[in-house]
Design a protein that fits this description.
- By secondary structure, this protein is mainly α.
- It has two domains: about 15-110, no CATH class; about 110-235, Serine Threonine Protein Phosphatase 5, Tetratricopeptide repeat (Alpha Horseshoe), CATH 1.25.40.10.
- The chain is built from 13 helices and two strands.
- The protein has helices spanning about 30-35, 50-55, 60-75, 80-90, 95-110, 110-125, 130-140, 150-165, 170-185, 185-200, 205-210, 220-235, 245-260, and strands at about 15-20, 25.
- A two-stranded antiparallel sheet has the order 1-2.
- Strand 1 (about 15-20) and strand 2 (about 25) form a beta hairpin.
- Helix 7 packs antiparallel against helix 8 (about 150-165).
- The longest helix is centred in the last third of the chain and has 17 residues, at about 220-235.
Length: about 260
């Protein structure tokens, strides 16, 4: 599925709004593309009565709309609703359909907590950081975290910290990275914590943290050096010049991206 895909069906006059990633789609090809690349986001926020109505009225595909509506009434899984949509325009090749079947089979065997985490990860990839944060927080409230694989909780906390950092909430990000390190003493977790901490604190406070935090022998020097290099590299990035006449457009773009990432 590389390159451009020629639309085979009518383009909608009014788009369908995909709540998960705050995006409008105008054709069944766009719907197929979204579903194929975001399996973990295929849930009730997209498979609902509104989608059936949109497919029937905007895309003028009443047979497909009726089939999906019947599936909704039978309360079938979201995964089972994928096939009629893909088959409507033969969107996938034979090999891609085999791969999809394998992915769905693997997805069906995953524990609920793991699927939730992958959903949060998919939201982060789509820039929907606030929605991802809500998913991660719900996972951490579960009472079966001890039953998950080793390091699972630490990875959720780490990804939560990443989501906060993308929203420039560095205090919360640093707290998450520290908690992740306390749960799993890895180089990655420690580096993330020190980098986040240093970005919002004075050097004297940072130096004190380096003395206070307990790390494995020999690891501390390696991590400190990597954080130092990262900070120096960041400080050396020149600010991008913005022509005055383009300022309004830049602000509009930044505002639009902010609202998209926060789901507002």
């Amino acid at each position: 599925m590389s390159g451009y895909i020629l639309c085979q069906t009518k383009k909608a006059e009014h788009p369908y709004f995909i709540e998960n990633i705050s995006m409008n789609i105008y054709s069944i090809e766009e719907l197929c593309y979204y579903l194929y690349h975001n399996l973990y986001l295929a849930d009730h926020t997209i498979f609902n009565e509104e989608l059936c109505t949109w497919i029937k009225e905007e895309l003028e595909l009443p047979a497909l709309a009726a089939k999906l509506k019947q599936s909704l009434e039978r309360n079938v899984s979201a995964e089972d609703m994928l096939y009629p949509i893909f088959k409507e325009i033969n969107y996938l090749t034979y090999e891609e359909m085999k791969e999809l079947n394998s992915q769905l089979a693997a997805l069906g065997k995953e524990r609920t907590a793991v699927r939730q985490k992958r959903k949060g990860d998919a939201l982060v990839e789509n820039g929907m950081y606030v929605n991802a944060i809500q998913i991660y927080q719900k996972i951490l409230e579960r009472d079966d975290l001890a039953e998950q694989r080793a390091g699972f909780e630490a990875s959720v906390v780490y990804n939560l910290g990443c989501a906060y950092s993308y929203l420039f909430q560095m205090e919360k990000a640093a707290e998450c990275f520290l908690l992740a390190y306390q749960k799993e003493q890895s180089v990655k977790n420690l580096q993330a914590y020190l980098l986040a901490y240093r970005s919002i604190h004075e050097k004297v406070d940072y130096d004190k943290i380096l003395l206070d935090i307990k790390v494995e022998e020999g690891l501390g020097k390696e991590v400190r050096e990597s954080v130092k290099q990262a900070l120096n590299s960041f400080a050396g990035i020149p600010e991008k010049k913005t022509e005055e006449e383009n300022l309004d457009g830049l602000l509009e773009t930044l505002t639009r991206e902010y609202h998209r990432s926060t789901g507002s």
